[in-house]
Amino acid sequence: MSELLNRIRRKSLHDRIRKVEEVIPLFKHGMNLGWSGFTPAGYPKAIPIALADYVEKNQLQGKMRFNLFIGASVGVETEDRWASLDMIDRRWPYQTGKNIQAGINEGRIRMGDKHLSMFAQDLGYGFYTKDNGGRLDIGIIECSAITEDGGLVLTASCGAVPEIVQIADRIIIEINTSIPNYEGLHDIIDPVNPPNRLPYLLSRVDDRAGSPYVRIDTDKIVAIVESQYPDNGRAFSEQDNTSEAIANNILDFFQFEVKEGRLPKNLLPLQSGVGSIANAVIGGLAKGPFSGLKVWTEVLQDTMLDLFDSGKLDFASTVSLSFSVDGFKRFYGNWEKYSNKVIMRPLSIANHPEPIRRLGCIAMNTPVEFDIYAHANSTLVGGTRMINGIGGSGDFLRNAYLSIMHTPSARPSKTDPTGITCVVPHVPHVDHTEHDLDVLVTEQGLADLRGLDPKSRAKLIIDKCAHPDYKPLLREYLEIATKECMARKAGHEPQLLDRVFKMQVNLAKNGTMKIANWDI
């Protein structure tokens, strides 16, 4: 208790300290809830776990359901367990976990997908809670401290906290005493709605434009509970030969762009998604020729610590410290070394198009698949089954100096080791359009699409990126489609609507995208 009291420096709030079981009666079926958190970092744990225990113990599955609004996904021990107990009605805008994905695809959970920067501001506008006067009933925020002025010192992420605390009628604070006080690591700009919004004064990755804490009306705080649950952490994605080959293609491209004068020697601020390819790219940079690097991104993974240790990364701006459990131990064990090189910002700032474009970010993200004209699908397998959501990839890809998408050229199906081509005639769901992407990369090669017309793009993507098992089929499709469309003077971007998804249909029926021919 003494550590908890030390963390709450506004002494007038000490009388709002409660045991976690005392706050359970505040939650009612059908409420709109906002949580802190972004990836498995900085999310509330004590109260969501206690609520799940309460529902399970009292057999209230399906009788205590909530609408859940969070900056992105959080730990599976919270939202995914809630899904297993039928505690989620609506979930915005991004999620992770087998149970919650099953609930969405079975129609039990209503999910909406949205670019993360737009989600944060639209939540603040009240667009998602119009039936509740644009308000959230309760916001649950994990903090590492509360200042003398009542400012909230967040933990390992910022997410959409500034918007949540503005529109929440009541706020419950979880003070996590199992982790260090994060004071000084955040840069928070209070959300202001149009027409009164001011420019964000950010011209460098390490600029500060706001406050190190979240300003809040402390009268809204109805309870403060202690948490000693560590962040669950994101499992480290191991590199493989394919991801390393993709990374090498990207690094070779960077060197060429420097040589041609289109990139400075220290590149431009880097944004990198999550997964084995992202890890391989960052790992390659740690060993590569570039120094004086800066990062403007959403998540820092364990390999970013390697990049710091290499001496080649000077500074990183992020929304979340998305480390593994061991990565958090490493960060906390070297707090002085890392903490003065990192700043965390809310979604509405980190993912905002204006600073991304001004800084000239290099965006790198992994899709499910892309097509021969450079449309990409990041969210829906087969065009219908939701995986996680678009996240912030679109925020970056549409506004970056260089927009790069990377994926293996093929993936295994249940019966064929290269049964799924990730380069298709047309993606069944478009998250990123041809207008937004500059460079596509697989382990086969890299296609620089800048300045190319659609048919030239298609030839280059097939030649450079497609797996050898599929190159003949894709070339044949392009030839047939071009001939037929040009004959009817509709050949700018040739497609055959009666055959364009033949590969996907064959996968569903026969377990592979390898078809015999393009006959109808």
TrEMBL record:
Record-annotated Acetyl-CoA hydrolase/transferase N-terminal domain positions: 15-226
Question: Can you name one GO molecular function term for this protein?
Answer: acetyl-CoA hydrolase activity
Q: Which residues form the Acetyl-CoA hydrolase/transferase C-terminal domain?
A: 327-477
The record's listing under SUPFAM superfamilies reads: NagB/RpiA/CoA transferase-like
List the GO terms this entry assigns under cellular component, sorted alphabetically: cytoplasm
Q: Which InterPro entries match?
A: AcetylCoA_hyd_C, AcetylCoA_hyd_C_sf, ActCoA_hydro, ActCoA_hydro_N, NagB/RpiA_transferase-like
Q: Which GO terms describe its biological process?
A: acetate metabolic process
Which reaction is this enzyme known to catalyze?
acetyl-CoA + H2O = acetate + CoA + H(+)
Keyword Ribosomal protein on entry: no
Answer yes or no on keyword Hydrolase. Answer: yes
Q: Which Pfam families match?
A: AcetylCoA_hyd_C, AcetylCoA_hydro
Q: Where in the cell is it found?
A: Cytoplasm
**EC number annotated for this UniProt entry:** 3.1.2.1
Q: Which UniProt keywords apply?
A: Cytoplasm, Hydrolase
Task: Say which family it is in.
Answer: Belongs to the acetyl-CoA hydrolase/transferase family.
| PANTHER family found in the cross-reference section | ACETYL-COA HYDROLASE (PTHR43609:SF1)
Q: What is this protein called?
A: Acetyl-CoA hydrolase
Question: What organism does the record attribute this protein to?
Answer: Geobacter hydrogenophilus
Q: What is the lineage of its organism?
A: Bacteria, Pseudomonadati, Thermodesulfobacteriota, Desulfuromonadia, Geobacterales
